[in-house]
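User: Reviewer 2 asked us to show a designed sequence for the structure in our supplementary figure. I'm pasting the structure tokens here. Could you produce the per-position amino acids so we can include them in the response letter?
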């Protein structure tokens, strides 16, 4: 089953890809205008879903004793890809194995050795597994960066707006983080509708608060940092979201 990531999830993943070691839940929360508890719960869910699979250090092996890093581009039978990938991973010196979808060179193996003799031994071990090495190259530099599509967007609305999903029938569903200075913050839904802060046509589906889901009722008080899922229905989107955003943020 595919896990549907919203904007908060994507921004969390982007921050962790950028620098997981020096990034804390409160730091991410500040940038998203949600609570640190919400960020921690989201990270737990992303780990459970297998999206965040671990946290590793990026090593410069050349500086670590002048070691050599080699990329082996290999071809294996399609039916054997997964098995041979696991077998290749078990070879001493292999640090990464990538399985491609189809075609030749469908297995890429990255390995580290003290010298060319070590790398030749790794190549021999791969061949003994019936992995055909098509080519091999020494890796000079590897540059990593977070996935840009998961990063902050340059949009006209304020950063508290967190996501949009369009259903099959064209209905737009928004997720929005409630700003501290939002008109609705601290008010019940009933009071917000009565004084016109929240248009009657706006349908609230759920409220996420510190990782818990709160079902909206008339007596429910909306709090800063809540993540609200809503359908604007017959109301202009900006008007529907205005109750949850900082009125000064767009000025």
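Assistant: Here is a per-position design you can include in the supplement:
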């Amino acid at each position: 089953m595919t896990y549907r990531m919203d904007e908060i999830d994507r921004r969390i993943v982007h921050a962790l890809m950028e620098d997981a070691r020096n990034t804390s839940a409160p730091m991410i929360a500040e940038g998203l205008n949600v609570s640190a508890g919400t960020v921690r719960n989201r990270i737990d869910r992303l780990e459970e879903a297998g999206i965040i699979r671990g946290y590793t250090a990026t090593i410069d092996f050349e500086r670590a004793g002048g070691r050599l890093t080699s990329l082996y581009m290999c071809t294996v039978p399609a039916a054997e890809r997964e098995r041979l990938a696991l077998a290749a991973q078990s070879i001493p010196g292999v640090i990464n194995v990538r399985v491609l979808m189809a075609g030749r060179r469908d297995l890429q193996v990255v390995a580290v050795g003290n010298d060319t003799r070590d790398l030749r031994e790794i190549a021999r071990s791969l061949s003994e597994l019936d992995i055909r090495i098509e080519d091999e190259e020494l890796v000079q530099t590897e540059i990593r960066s977070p996935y840009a599509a998961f990063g902050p967007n340059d949009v006209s609305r304020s950063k508290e707006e967190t996501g949009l999903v369009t259903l099959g029938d064209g209905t737009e569903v928004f997720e929005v983080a409630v700003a501290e200075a939002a008109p609705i913050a601290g008010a019940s839904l009933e009071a917000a509708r009565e004084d016109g802060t929240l248009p009657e046509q706006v349908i609230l589906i759920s409220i996420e608060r510190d990782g818990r889901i709160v079902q909206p009722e008339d007596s429910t008080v909306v709090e800063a940092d809540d993540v609200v899922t809503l359908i604007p229905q017959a109301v202009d989107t900006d008007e529907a979201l205005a109750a949850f955003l900082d009125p000064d943020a767009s000025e």
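For the response letter, you might also mention the following. Residues 154-162 have pLDDT under 50 and may be disordered. Strands lie at 68-75, 94-99, 107-113, 132-138, 161-166, 172-177, 203-209, 212-214, 227-231.
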